Amino acid sequence: MTMTKTDFYASIAARERFVPRGLANTHSIFVTRAEGTRVWDVDGKEYLDFTSGIGVLNTGHRHPHVVRAVREQLDRLMHTCFQVTMYEPYVELAARLCALVGEARKAVLFTTGAEGIENAVKIARAHTKRSAVVAFSGGFHGRTLLALTMTASSPGYRQNFGPFAADVYHVPFPDEYRGWTAGKAIAALEELFSTEVMPEHVAAVVIEPELGEGGFIPAPAAFLQRLRAITEQHGIVFVADEVQSGFGRTGEMFGYQHAGIEPDLVVMAKSLAAGLPLSAVVGKAAIMDAPLPGGLGGTYGGNPLACAAALAVLDVFAAEGLVARAASTGDQIRAALTRLQTRVPRIGDVRGLGAMLAIELVTDPASKAPDADFAQRIIDRARDGGLLLLKCGPHKNVVRLLPPLTASVEEITAGVERLEAAVLDAV
Ligand SMILES: Cc1ncc(COP(=O)(O)O)c(C=O)c1O
């Protein structure tokens, strides 16, 4: 049999020859086609995709409404750069994102989550005229230098890429399973303010309402409420990183809504545009207007195709009731995972909000020692059984589930059965 060009470029040998190892792959498969909750590899094997391209596809792969909107936009306008000449989808999307967050908001668009985070910090610094930034251990905010400095979910992301940005501080994220109560985490923040940096020098506190890469750990509502009160007291800009927890994933449009708080700035990306690169910073107008003209921007930020995709995503959310669907899908998955935990006590913890759920694997439930090998075996066996999953957590011992919110009850049932089979096989 002769090897075609496609066969060659869809081979591990070609990948290793032309793409650096620093970019690691979770699954050694090449995918050629995707639809809804399903993807197909080069050999035609079908998988249920419970990764959603790391939380990007809450509306599923190639939702017909999104595909149509992007095609129609493609026929009209692909790019001008909003800073050069303006176009309607940018402003319409800004208005609709503002309406999701609150009164008197403004929105600026970028391409990636990291870029959104970097710009949120710039805006907070311009507004407060302060420099310090407080982030949380376990947090992941991106791979650009400032976002990477704020990231503390694994030393593997930082390696020897320093020196890192100045004036970034980390405090523990509350993690009840490992003994970090909300009260202890607040005390650690107060300790930081009395030992390392005065609160009046802090521009922003940046937090994921539910840690993503850091292990799918939701911040308790009482913790977020206290943090909101402390930031308000000291004039610190509260930034919610909703890059992974946003767009319905947690059973609310945004994760912070579970705590009933109002952040000053909200960073969005991933599922905002169903696979096209788009991020947003949406925040209180007075803060958003702090940078002077020319201070914000980027060649591709708010590209017309990405804006058209995002407008269609918002239509799909409304038409298909995806926020409520996330809650019911989450209930279905959580019930199955909890049942599985009674059979497999080395599932130390089942946790998460809505459809942002994960299991933490340990060597035994008493010691809670992380079991990364067990997690990897589950991931590998699930893939062999037709289910794509991702790991997370600082110790790589957490298996997270990110199915599209459009997935049917039957697809969720099938996916969970494949996960159960993988766990029982790997234990
Ligand atoms: C919570 C969170 N913030 C920021 C980012 C960075 O986004 P991007 O990879 O688009 O730069 C990620 C990516 O996984 C994330 O999960």
Task: Write structural notes for this entry.
The chain is of the alpha/beta class and 427 residues long. The chain is built from 15 helices and 15 strands. The strands form three sheets. A seven-stranded mixed β-sheet has the order 4-10-9-8-7-5-6, sandwiched between helices. The longest helix has 22 residues, at 322-343. The model has no long low-confidence stretch (mean pLDDT 97). The structure holds pyridoxal-5'-phosphate (PLP). Pyridoxal-5'-phosphate (PLP) is lined by residues 54, 112-114, 117, 140-142, 208, 212-213, 241, 243-244, 269. The site of pyridoxal-5'-phosphate (PLP) has 15 residues, from helix 6.
Low-confidence region ranges: none
Q: What compounds are bound to the protein?
A: pyridoxal-5'-phosphate
How big is the Rg? 21 Å
Number of helices: 15
Please tally the β strands and state the result.
15
Average the pLDDT over all residues and give the rounded result. Answer: 97
- Estimate the strand proportion: 15-25%
Secondary structure: helix percent: 25-40%
- The strands making up the biggest β-sheet line up spatially as 4-10-9-8-7-5-6
Q: What class do helices, strands and sheet pairing give?
A: alpha/beta
Distance between the termini: 40 Å
* General shape: globular
Biggest sheet layout: 7 strands, mixed
What order do the SSEs take from the amino end to the carboxyl end, as H and E? HHEEEHHHEHEHHEHEHEEEHHHEEHEEEH
